[in-house]
Design a protein that fits this description.
The protein has 9 helices and 8 strands. With 306 residues, the protein is of the alpha/beta class. β2 and β3 form a beta hairpin.
């Protein structure tokens, strides 16, 4: 049986994320489906979702993983309540030119500082202080972030004793920290999907370094306090029975209402452009592929669908 060619929706036009738990994910008759314990099938329009969060109790087939990669949908294996990221399947990384461009900016101290200063400007709406190193700007940023948390807590009437949480035991945190952890996990998921779609590397950061998602944290921070942090405090103030579920549903709504997926990739390009360099060109002696790759069917960083 033949099927129509895959035509993924551009990242900016996709649904931000969905969560799946307690089901077998497979491809049946060309469709991406979740099968529950009673055998009921639920169709998932995989090509129209930025990332799929797989919670405990979920199993996924090789065919389903392959289809998600083809259409550029990020699979993220998370813990209960959507926090504690265990692993992610990488649908992007298909643009060596952009990876080299990002790496060149990160490895040069002067260029890296330009990018960090631009991130500060985008995040706080003002120029970064002059004659400050990356480390000094990181310290200034940290102090401002602590103040922003305090202001949000006061605005929503939530008791706040600082950002305290145990990644290994989500329930140890107070309700405000639980809500923030769940909300930022959602934000990191769609940010990583956008970074990969644009052809960049999640691990090559500028402010954050040395972690698999360093660049994800850098970019997510540009949007955190205008989206998920106020939302988390608002939900914490209402003391819901299941804060993680309330946060996830609210995040989906705010991501859609704010058109966040349309903003992330342009923001990436904006901050990297502050380095004022062109992407490196391939050396003249570079050997072209023996078998040319088919044209990509997704965003710039998605692999070809052949």
């Amino acid at each position: 049986m033949s099927y129509l060619p895959l035509k993924p929706i551009p990242m900016k036009d996709r649904v931000s994320m969905i969560f799946i738990e307690y089901g077998q994910i497979d491809v049946l008759d060309g469709a991406f489906v979740v099968i529950d314990k009673t055998g009921v099938r639920t169709h998932i329009p995989v090509g129209s979702v930025a990332c799929i969060m797989l919670e405990p109790g979920t199993r996924i087939s090789h065919a389903a993983t392959r289809l998600a990669a083809q259409v550029g949908t990020l699979l993220v294996w998370v813990g209960e309540a959507g926090v504690r990221l265990y692993a992610s399947g990488q649908p992007g990384g298909a643009r060596a030119d952009r990876l080299l461009y990002q790496a060149k900016l990160a490895l040069d101290d002067e260029l890296r500082l330009k990018v960090v200063r631009k991130m500060y400007e985008v995040r706080f709406g003002e120029e970064a202080p002059q004659r400050r190193s990356v480390e000094q700007l990181r310290g200034i940023e940290g102090a401002r972030v602590k103040k922003l948390y305090q202001l949000q807590a006061q605005r929503h009437g939530v008791a706040w004793h600082g950002r305290r949480y145990d990644p290994k035991d989500w329930e140890k945190g107070d309700i405000a920290n639980q809500c923030i952890s769940a909300a930022t996990s959602c934000l990191y998921g769609i940010t990583e999907a956008a970074i990969l779609a644009a052809g960049y590397a999640p691990a090559v950061g500028f402010i954050h370094t040395g972690k698999p998602l360093s660049f994800v944290y850098d970019i997510a921070d540009l949007f955190k306090f205008e989206t998920v942090v106020p939302l988390a405090f608002k939900i914490a103030a209402s003391s819901p029975n299941k804060p993680d579920r309330a946060v996830r549903q609210a995040c989906r709504d705010i991501f859609r209402e704010s058109n966040l997926l349309k903003k992330i990739i342009p923001a990436i390009e904006e901050v990297l452009a502050a380095g004022e360099i062109e992407p490196p060109k391939a050396p003249q002696e570079a050997v072209p592929p023996a078998i040319p790759n088919p044209a990509s069917i997704g965003d710039a960083g998605h692999r070809s669908g052949g």
